[in-house]
Amino acid sequence: MNLSQHNQFSSKASQLLSWGHWFTFANIGLALFISLSFLFADSPPTSFMGITYMLVTWLSHTSFIAFLAFVLTIFPLSLVFPYPRHIRGMAAVIATLGASLLTLDAYVYVNLGYHLNSSALPEIISLLWHRLTSSPTLTTLLAGGIVLLILGFQLVVSNFTWHHLARLKQLKFARFASSFLVLCFALSHSIHIWADANLNFDITKQDNVLPLSYPTTAKSLLAKNDLLDIESYKQAHDVRINNQNINYQIPAPLQKCEDYTQQQVDIFVFDTPEQLNNFVAKQDKLYKTEQFLQPTHHGDSLFSLVYGLPSFYKMAILSEQTLPAWQSQRRSVELSGIEKLDFINDRAHSNSAIKIIKGQSNPTPRSEDTHIFAFSLANNSADVVTSSVLYSSDKRISKVDGLIQPSDLIATSVGQYLNCKSVVSQTMLGENLYKKKNDTGVNYSQGVVIAYKKDRITLIDSDGNYKNISAAEGFSIEQSLDIPFLVQSIKKLKTYTQ
């Protein structure tokens, strides 16, 4: 009696195991279909080897994830609880959850550039909430429809493979397909080892495209976003973040600011802290903040101050002598003491709304009602960025939580004091400090990507190496790369690239 029961138990388990393999094959096909979105989310590889690696990795890695899910869930359930009807139902539900999670991950990756993870939970929730609140009915129907469609597919596949199991066992497809996927798996890892050894970024930049794949490094992240001069790296191991061929392009047409407010803003830039202190001592009401983050390269800092952009765009703008966007919308700016940007003064009005004055030892504000910013350029330093002191006639600026950059000063001047928020949102990366919602930002100087989040500044240098430093104290912070945050920062840095 016991032996008969045991044989019956083994027979059911064996049948469920065979069924499970075919059920998994069907889900591999579904996973491959869903994961196509990962391949189209980024710029495709350009070389034959890069395309080959992308295809074999897509086939093998996605298949491996689906098979691993079967091994960890359905397979042990089949051995412990070998009741076909119940197992097939549970398998359909489990597979639906897995495919739905993969679909969600694909949606997040396409929109944010990284996969589901706990460190990016606030950004992911914000994305989903924005989608839900912008069109709640459509989003609910679409999400619910996708889940029901996947569940329907799982139930049909589950029943079909069970009722046609005998005929499916006679097919040789599974054996050849399994061998082919194993070959792709071995080939993908071999190609990656070769690419890593030979500095082939067309391959290694794909490290984090598929979920649960190779961890992204700073170098592969820059390569993926076309910010590495790869040819120079191959020739001399001298990798520079590539902004040589950047074309600065703003949205067109620009929104006009009909509710123009005629106010005056004076921004005083001093060469030394002593000059700044002498100026402040002569003013009645200036408020101080020590959270002013500026590049130590004076040219980069001044460019960012005038255009509200990182110096990533400096070469393109200066070569074309592109005027600031508000010059054509009655927001004239007049510069004094900044030679490389002197061409802007050709379009400045006699009574410019914004005056940026550098190098004068005893400057005077135009009137008592003029909004004032004052700071001194950073002293020569081995660091790329440094925190310094900023003074403002606006008390609210001194109470801003988080770091302030030079680009934020012009963004606040145009967006808040001159009441032209649309120009700021369309043409600048600087933030209107009145509207500042989060303590994050991105900059670029001396070939280094600079991204900050609260007090932590991440620097990715010209070799693809990185370090974290404290904004307040300047000491190094031992912490791993925050990939989701860096992806967001690089995407923001490239907002106006063509």
TrEMBL record:
The chain crosses the membrane at residues 21-41, 61-83, 90-110, 138-161, 173-195. InterPro entries: YejM_N. Keywords: Membrane, Transmembrane, Transmembrane helix. Residues 7-250 form the Inner membrane protein YejM N-terminal domain. The keyword Nuclease does not apply. This is Inner membrane protein YejM N-terminal domain-containing protein. It comes from Pseudoalteromonas espejiana. The lineage of its organism: Bacteria, Pseudomonadati, Pseudomonadota, Gammaproteobacteria, Alteromonadales.
